[in-house]
Give the backbone structure.
Amino acid sequence: MMAVGAALAFWLATWALNVALARSRWRKARAVRIAVPVIFGLAVLVLWQGLVRGLEVSPVILPAPSDIAVTFANSTETLWEDFVQTVLKGALSGYLIGCGVAFVTAILIDRSAFLTAGLLPIGNFVAALPIVGIAPILVSWFGFDWHSKAAVVVAMVFFPVLVNVVQGLKETEAMQRDLMRTYAASYWQTMLKLRLPAAMPFVFNGLKIATTLALIGAIVAEYFGSPVKGMGFRISTGVGRLAIDLVWAEIAVAALVGTAFYGIVAMIEKFVTFWHPSQRVG
């Protein structure tokens, strides 16, 4: 039980440190804002390690973080192969196709009252379809390789991006549009110089939502058929073989990739929408 006691003591110490940092006069400094979640994450890992070792939890139920780290280090080739299959081929290609098609469709909807009245309600219906229902159908249509996973990702990311872009294009005020007309601006000039810049915060909201949906869709789709590689395939077979440490290693990769993907899109948003009040610091 010494491991449990030491882990609890470490948890309490880091908790007190985080409280002190959060209340300090440096709480708004970048270093403190980064240090607080890092310390909290480290405390969670130490507590996890101490509880598993101290209570002698079976690795089949919950492996210790150190065991997961060893498996991670020994399985880098397998993890990289799964990363390429699931993330680069399935999730990323589907994300780019789905977001691109959604953007073009939003422009078409903006120019057509018929599409606004007809397509958006159908889109609501399609968005409500359960992914576990449509994934096996798309796998049977497009085969077991990454193409079917990309199709599932397209189905998942299309509607959130579409709705956000359509809503963003409505954000300009009538007076601003009238001003562009007085300058004899064409539809595309108004679109490029007024409406698209105003829509960017909404566009990036949709793109950020789609980053997490893309990864989830690609992994879930692999449960319904895939070649002998991929994160979803490895997780499903790893549970069956009781290789839970490998399952957690795959989950760690998915979490890191999802966080990095979201962060990259958020950084691009900050660069593009630097003028928006939400991006102003202080």
Notes: The chain has a mean pLDDT of 87.
